[in-house]
Amino acid sequence: MVLRSDPSSLDSEGTRVIPTAASSRLFVFGPQCLSFDQQSANCLRSQLQRSDELIWILDALSALPCFWDTLKKSVSVLQQSNGQTHLQKLAIWIRTGDPERLAWPLPNVLLTPLVVALHMVELKKAAPFMYDNADPSSHIPARVLGLCTGLLSSMAVACSNSWSELKHNGSAAIRLAMLIGAVVDAVDESLPQSSQAASLSVFWTQNGGRQKLESVIEAVDKVSP
């Protein structure tokens, strides 16, 4: 079984749950979800609010602004960052659902922790009985793999033997995601516009797509100044 991703249904890019044997599964947590938009955010918030078992994720996200002052003192590149403003707007959006609170596309300081939150929701949907028994030896055997941002989610799951532990480790992963995203934003903002990072993702559905892409790139190179 392969669960393909769809941000509108609360699945982030590249997330997979793959059986590797009769008694085990491989959980693959995908990278940064660049297609995460306002509709995706609203779906995520709605899902979290409807589930008592997932409310801890809302609490973890809402608490992120509380850690900013400590981070600024420890990470010099954050001194001139406006990450705290973004985090405060995130907390208000979580509480009110006001879509005007978030600016799109989201900065990494918000997007990265939201992707980890998305992974936690996906895990609960894909393996609702993973931690049901209090006896760790009875848990569903599983292996985890994380790609990019998914590395944080995979570590939280790999270190957890119960939903209680996952709440603790998942909350820590969300905080780490916020820190990483904030540093990425701050470094990018400190650079001249011509040196700031950009990301482009391309895919094709028919044979010969790569050749067409390469011909387009070659044509652009010839006309670029």
Helix and strand run: EEHHHHHEHHH
The biggest sheet amounts to: 3 strands, mixed
Taken from the alpha-carbon principal axes, the silhouette is globular
Q: Which strand order spans the largest sheet, edge to edge or round the barrel?
A: 1-2-3
Distance from first to last alpha carbon = 49 Å
The helix fraction, in percent, is: 40-55%
The poorly predicted ranges are 1-12
What would the average pLDDT be, to the nearest integer?
Answer: 82
Q: If helices are DSSP runs of H or I spanning 4 or more residues, what is the number of helices? A: 8
Beta-strand content estimate: 5-15%
Q: Which structural class should the secondary elements be placed in?
A: mainly alpha
Find the count of extended strands (DSSP E, 2+ residues): 3
Give Rg in angstroms: 19 Å
Description:
This protein is mainly α. Helices cover 50% and strands 8% of the residues. It is built from eight helices and three strands. It has helices at residues 38-50, 55-62, 68-74, 83-96, 108-126, 150-158, 163-190, 209-223, and strands at residues 16-21, 24-29, 142-146. Strand 1 (16-21) and strand 2 (24-29) form a beta hairpin. The termini are far apart. 31% of the residues are buried.
What is shown here, in short?
The chain is mainly α. The chain is built from eight helices and three strands. A three-stranded mixed sheet has the order 1-2-3.
